Amino acid sequence: MIAALDVHYKENYAKTVLLIFENWTSESYHECIEVKTTEITEYIPGEFYKRELPCLLEGLKRIDLNSIEVIIIDGYIYVDNEENSGLGGHLYHSLNEQIPIIGVAKTKFANNSETAVEVFRGESKNPLYVSAVGIEKEKAAEQVKKMFGDYRLPHLLKIMDQKTKEE
């Protein structure tokens, strides 16, 4: 199984959504878990992971991690070409480096061109930026490219994004 997760911040809480699906070409999800976290820290520039990581870990407590082959996050694994950990890297270390993490980002980071692969999907002229730890970034990029959906953002990642924004 594959777990995709993201966090969206509301006025008084953070909403984490986990979508669990069977494989890379799945058209629908097997399970959707939503978790509200009321104790969130302030955003600190350059330390985004300190705000988001606790929310992701809280969501992951709701599933059997032994059944998960890989986790997809909205974001990057590394913040630069020297492989300093971003959100995905910190998540990987928090999970004792047992589950590969794939970061899928919609915007480019200036200093991590060597740690992310551009993936063009559908007719889009704008790439997704795929990074990975625990799996080769090129293999991760191939998997993201073959995910179900005709548009830039794979169908299930779009659903996850929409669900994080719902009340």
What does this molecule look like?
With 167 residues, the chain is an alpha/beta fold. The chain is 24% helix and 25% strand. It contains four helices and seven strands, in the order βββαβαβββαα. A seven-stranded mixed β-sheet has the order 3-2-1-4-5-7-6, with helices on both faces. α2 (87-94) links the parallel β4 (70-74) and β5 (101-105). α1 packs across α2 (87-94). The radius of gyration is 15 Å and the shape is globular. The mean pLDDT is 93.
Summarize the biggest pleated sheet. 7 strands, mixed
Mean pLDDT: 93
Overall outline? globular
Derived from helix and strand composition plus strand pairing, the structural class reads: alpha/beta
**Poorly predicted segments:** none
The total beta strand count reads 7
Order of strands side by side in the largest beta sheet? 3-2-1-4-5-7-6
Helix content: 10-25%
Computed over alpha carbons, the radius of gyration is 15 Å
DSSP strand content:
25-35%
Number of helices: 4
Order of helices and strands: EEEHEHEEEHH
- Ends apart, CA distance between termini: 27 Å
